[in-house]
Structure formats: structure tokens, C-alpha cells
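Researcher: Re-running this chain for the archive, since the previous output was lost when a drive failed. Same request as before.
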Amino acid sequence: MAEEKAAEKRISIGKIYLKDFSFESPKAPEVFRHPDWKPKTNLNISSSHTALSDNQHEVVLTISVEAKHEDETLFLGELQQAGLFELVGYDGDELSAIVGSFCPNTLFPYARETISTLILKAGFPEFLLQPINFDNLYAQSQKHRDETSAGENEKKH
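Model: Regenerated C-alpha cells:
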């Protein structure tokens, strides 16, 4: 019986694609005339999920990278790397964990390569995003959600 239930579960990748990308360097070409700048980089990562049918899901990993020197923006890039995933036999917490951790983890190498290549082609030094622990990020978001729910329930009583 347990073997039948396990056989019913399946994850497959239907398509990985670039949904949206924007890049700007508002201080170009002046920024390249001062190669001694030491930029501060801000990185924001989020993911979203849309159920397209019972088994087909779109997951979008959004990564924003901004490099600043003092108060001037050197470059700003935002990418939405998306994927269509067929998730059969999962629901509730299992489905939530897959779309919150497994799917973004699958999309991340594609997003990292695209961001790195475009920043380099824009004339800036090599930029490599470090590995990200999506399992940990998902666990943190679940903990935050649970704490928020508990706080709201206390207010109602």
C-alpha cells in the first residue's frame, strides 16, 4: 500500500524559461571612467507560485541585484526565472515545500548564469551569486508565517 502511494507521486520539469529581465546602468559610461569604486551590492530574492491546474504549477524565482557606490546606482538588474512543474500526488505541506524550496532551487542555477553573463556583458567585473539554501529560506518563511498566525489568533481572543 505504501509502495502504491509513493508510486503515485511524481515531479517533472515541463519548461524552464526567462519570464522577465531588466537591466540598467544609469551612470554609464561615466562609471567606467573611475575604476577605483568599491560598490556595495544589495540582493533580494523571492519566489511565487501559481497553480495552473491540479498538477501543473508555475514557479517564478525573482532576483534583484543593485550595485551602488556611495549614493549612486552603478547598475540595477532584476530577473524572473520561471518554470513549469508537473507535481503529481502532492498536496498541503508537501506541495508547499516543493514549490517553496525544490522548485526555486531548480531555477537558481539558470538565474545565476543569466545575471552573471549580463552584468559581465554590461562592462562590469565578474559577479557570481553564491549558493543559496532554499530549504532554510523556506523554513524561515514558514516559521515567520506561523508566528504571525499565532500573534493574530492571540489578538482575536
